[in-house]
Specification:
This protein is mainly alpha-helical and 75 residues long. The protein has one domain (2-71). 39% of the residues lie in helices and 8% in strands. The protein is built from three helices and two strands, in the order H-E-H-E-H. It has helices at 2-9, 26-32, 51-64; strands spanning 15-17, 43-45. It is globular. It starts with a helix and ends in an 11-residue tail after the last helix.
Length: 75
């Protein structure tokens, strides 16, 4: 989480989350993206990330996103 926020503070405009050894879960995404304004900094998953991680990211967007991000196309 700290590294992500530091990168954003230093000019990074989007975030690509790498593929972990196990799937990203909702709790892990909450921790990794804590403090990130999801409507300002786009978040994507690295290629070949599993579907469960994608579902967890959509869950986080539903939970924390604004009106635009809640209408995410991935359902």
């Amino acid at each position: 989480q700290t590294a992500v926020l530091e990168d954003l503070e230093h000019g990074v405009t989007s975030i690509e989350l790498g593929t972990p050894a196990t799937a990203w879960g909702l709790d892990e995404l909450r921790e990794a993206l804590e403090g990130v304004l999801l409507d300002i900094a786009p978040v994507v998953l690295a290629p070949h990330t599993d579907l469960e991680s994608a579902r967890a990211l959509v869950g986080l967007l539903d939970e924390r996103g604004d009106a635009l991000t809640r209408r995410c196309w991935l359902r």
